[in-house]
Amino acid sequence: MNQSALSLLLTRASCGLLQAPAPDGEILEHILQAGLRAPDHGHLQPFQFLLAEGEGLNRLGTLLAESAKADGAADDVIERAAQLPLRAPLVITVVAKVTPHNKVPEFEQHLSAGCAVMAMQMAAQAQGFGGIWRSGPLMYSRRLHELLGLNERDQIVGFLYLGTPATSLRIPSFANSADFVRRI
Ligand SMILES: Cc1cc2nc3c(=O)[nH]c(=O)nc-3n(C[C@H](O)[C@H](O)[C@H](O)COP(=O)(O)O)c2cc1C
């Protein structure tokens, strides 16, 4: 049994308080490769990872604010949108790049991209970094999709905030699996 893989699965935890440094180099490459290992029906590779760090975080913030404005948000929401990416040194906008397919519906391609988010978070944790999967109403904004150069079928499935944990990772408590299981 691969004890460390199992322990990673059992202790995966999000970390919202993140600071520099961000994962980079080989560590970041491992994270991206883990994302690309997500299950993928039909090998359609419905993944795109938009990386923002440094000035890119401000650029992403500007696009979020612009989208919020276009979507009719209140001034305080627009202001806050610009600041959102600054909560981590690296934000990966994970996009489901959907290919029309007669056997693989869009939903399955969205699921694949979602699996990539979790795999990347776990790969970050495995290498001593931390992360949190965030969404929010702008994730569904078609204006944001346009501003990011995405097409009408594409769907952002998450903003993965990554960095060095500024607090120790919470040790998750075990749920009672029986509460979630029904034998059929
Ligand atoms: C699709 C999706 C969207 C999420 N969006 C947010 C979010 O916008 N803000 C947030 O604080 N947590 C969000 N979460 C939850 C966190 O990623 C995290 O799972 C939660 O804080 C529980 O922590 P844990 O992962 O350590 O159990 C989202 C999770 C998923 C799966």
From TrEMBL:
Coiled-coil annotated residue ranges, if any: none
SUPFAM superfamilies, per the entry: FMN-dependent nitroreductase-like
EC number: 1.-.-.-
The keyword Flavoprotein is annotated on this UniProt entry: yes
Top-rank EC class of the record's enzyme: oxidoreductase
Cofactor(s) essential for the protein: FMN
GO MF, one annotated term: oxidoreductase activity
Gene3D superfamilies listed in its UniProt record: NADH Oxidase
The Nitroreductase domain, residue ranges: 14-163
Binding annotation for FMN: R12, A13, S14, R37, H41, W133, R134, S135
Keywords: Flavoprotein, FMN, NAD, NADP, Oxidoreductase
Pfam families for the chain: Nitroreductase
CC cofactor note: Binds 1 FMN per subunit.
Family: Belongs to the nitroreductase family.
Identification of the protein by name: Putative NAD(P)H nitroreductase
Organism, as annotated: Tolumonas osonensis
